[in-house]
Amino acid sequence: MNQDYAQGDSDVPRLVLTDQDRAAITRRASSGIVRTLAAQAAMLGMAVLVSWLVAGGAAAVSAFIGAAAYFVPNALFALRLLVGLFGPLKSSPFTFFVGEAFKLGSAVVVLGLAAWLGRGWLVWPAMLFGLLCVLKGYVLLLLFRRLP
After folding, report:
1. Most buried of 39, 52, 63, 99 (most Cβ within 10 A)?
2. Are 80 and 91 in contact (CB under 8 A)?
3. What is the arithmetic mean of pLDDT over 64-87?
4. Cβ pair 32, 141 in contact under 8 A
5. For residue 126, which of 37, 20, 55, 30 has the smallest C-alpha distance?
6. Residue 66 near residue 111, CB atoms below 8 Å
7. Residue by residue, what is the 3-state secondary structure of the chain?
């Protein structure tokens, strides 16, 4: 990386990235996305296992629904961001905000459907535990000092 000066203003430095700098940034961003998804998947598995051990099969399914309500849309959004890093479809700030809205909206819809369709068997504490575990998947990255 070297610094250049913006046109017309000699006091404001401008950062100019080389191809190697861009490649390093892309590698770091993509590995951070993949690590975050792996941590969330591990937390999903842990939530299902703990729920099953503590309260049985219905709780395990409930925890899976709660965890998947956020993990699946998040994984799809991460895939879109990875395509933006390596593929022809470039990501923009608008893409990011649309993706975040998609993730949140999808989670609300899935949780609402689970509450409506699973009235007789859904274990609410387990479902919320699964959702919380996936939402806090980055805690594993903090624990193992692997934050991107």
Report:
1. 63
2. yes
3. 87
4. no
5. 55
6. yes
7. CEEEECCCCCCCEEEECCHHHHHHHHHHHHHHHHHHHHHHHHHHHHHHHHHHHHHCHHHHHHHHHHHHHHHHHHHHHHHHHHHHHHCCCCCCHHHHHHHHHHHHHHHHHHHHHHHHHCCCCCCHHHHHHHHHHHHCCHHHHHHCCCCC
Segment 20-30 shows an average pLDDT of: 68
Q: What mean pLDDT is predicted for residues 24-30?
A: 67
Counting other chains too, the contacts that 53-59 makes at CB distance below 8 Å and 24 or more residues apart are 55/123, 55/126, 58/121, 58/122, 58/123, 58/126, 59/123, 59/125, 59/126
CA–CA separation, 88 vs 65, rounded Å?
34
Average pLDDT over residues 65-85: 89
Under a CB-based contact definition with an 8 Å cutoff, are residues 122 and 115 in contact? yes
Closest CA to 23 of 93, 91, 85, 90: 85
Contact 33, 81 (CB under 8 A): yes
For the chain, the residue count is 148
